[in-house]
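Suppose a colleague, Dr. K., hands you the sequence of a protein chain of 225 amino acids and asks what its three-dimensional shape might be. Before reaching for any lab equipment, you can write down a predicted structure in token form. Begin with the sequence itself:
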Amino acid sequence: MWYHNAEVGSSKPGQFITLEGIEGSGKSRQLNLLEKELSRLGLSFIRAHQPGGTPFGEEIRRVLLHKDGAEREPGSELLLYLADRYQHLKEVIDPALDKGIHVVCDRYHDATLAYQGHARGIGFELIDRLAEILELRTPDLTLVLDVEVRVGLQRAIERNHRENQEQWGRFEAEDLSFHQKVREGYQRLAQREPERVLLVDASGDPDTVFEKLLSLIRQHHLLQP
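The predicted structure, expressed as tokens, is then:
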């Protein structure tokens, strides 16, 4: 998590934007570009990620993502993600937004719906009910970087090798059909909530993709100076 001009804040609540996508969709690169743009504009914001983002969450992240981690039932995996999310909201996201600090987050609840809800077969209905019980905050805007599955997986595998991060490739090790279902899950979410969840074609070069992403943020009148 990175803080930028966080002491400035605003009397208005901050805005909450999340980036989503399959493995290798380019979220980190786009967040880097967005971070530079928001810093250039002098906005008060934090950059966050899930799973993780708190000491408690980083412990859960190790359990969830390490490729040699123990096998788990889909329901157990779901509950771990929700525990991470609830802690992150209470400790980081909600306090920042309440202070007028914007939050841009790498993955959030839509990832759980796409991965555990659709790809793992739990379904959206149960996860929706749990989110309601936990009073999970809904983002102001969710941008899904959409890319063909084989392309994204190849990018992710090359990235992990380049950065010596192969040990964190638990999801990259899933078969192709799983990742196809994840992509389909995101597409269904975009159909379900077309005003909030927007698909962004991420097949082009990073700068072109970023222009599309930034245009959508501006169209929704978010993250303005």
